[in-house]
Amino acid sequence: MLWQKEYKKVQEKITKITLLAAPELIGMLQEALAALEVQGIKTKLISGKYASYSLSYQQPGGNNERVGIVWTEDSSMTSFFNIMNACHRAIQQNLCQTMYLIRIGSVGNPKLAGNQIYSQIFTGTNHRYIKPNLSYVHYLATYHNLVNSALAQELVITGKTITLQELQSLIRESKILEKCTLLQDLGIVSKRETGRDDTNGKKDSRQVKDFLLNLVKTQGYMGVTTLITQSTSQFPLVKESEVLLLIELLCQEKKVKIINPKAKLQDQLICFIVQI
Asked: What predicted TM-score, i.e. pTM, was given to this entire model?
């Protein structure tokens, strides 16, 4: 799958979180939140020099509460003190009702002023401190790379160029970001296993995928566009771009094969691979 290939490249390139600057990390997180249709995303929650280390958004679930996130990996305790001060001001100004601090580095010892403000904010309150792991960043960076490819019109799946909007739809449909523990910790996605039909009655992607496989298996081989047409007729709420992603998944799993992948989409043929 396209995601798996990109994820592997990211794993090889990013070997520690501190290789990325805080504004990059916040930017990647913002892209993931947008893909998951989180509402009211605003950059620069805190003010001052470190504003780009932060963002806020509307708490999912229907209430109007705002959640703030500050992600800092600066090793300097002076920087940490200034950032904690800025967090304290943002809370006092009621810019967010819940604040998350994401940081893998030290928060200092109790003698330091920065640690004292940190303890005041994040100890015994509804504000939370999250110590990230590398997989958090790998998920965010993988999606970030796909976003860049889509914006450059270089993201192609089964012969079709995918727009950013289509990519966001594919990401939601595949539920790949739901595996990102950071997004689970933030409460953006559920920690429960998914796989059911959603509340809008949209069919689970597994059902669509099974339909595709069974149809190709029954036909032996057929035109890709015919396969797409029959699938979207069977599942009216499923988009063509989502079907294309599922076809790619089946190809990666070596269950089906595009006979002439370099041909135009309307000329491509797909066949079932007999398992020996």
From this structure: 0.70
Q: C-alpha dihedral over 71, 77, 78, 79, to 10 degrees?
A: -20
Q: Which domain holds residue 125?
A: 16-133
**Count of residues for the chain?**
276
* Cα→Cα distances 276→220, 254, 270, Å: 16, 12, 19
Domain end call among 93, 118, 133: 133
- In tens, the pLDDT along 30-71 reads 999 999 999 999 999 999 999 999 999 998 876 778 999 999
Nearest to 122 by CA among 140, 135, 108: 108
Same domain for 128 and 20, yes or no, is: yes
Whose tokens are 């958004």? That residue is: 57
Residues 6+ apart with CB under 8 A from 245: 157, 170, 173, 174
- The phi, psi pair for 150, rounded to 5°, reads -65, -45
Q: What is the CATH number of the domain that holds 276?
A: 1.10.10.10
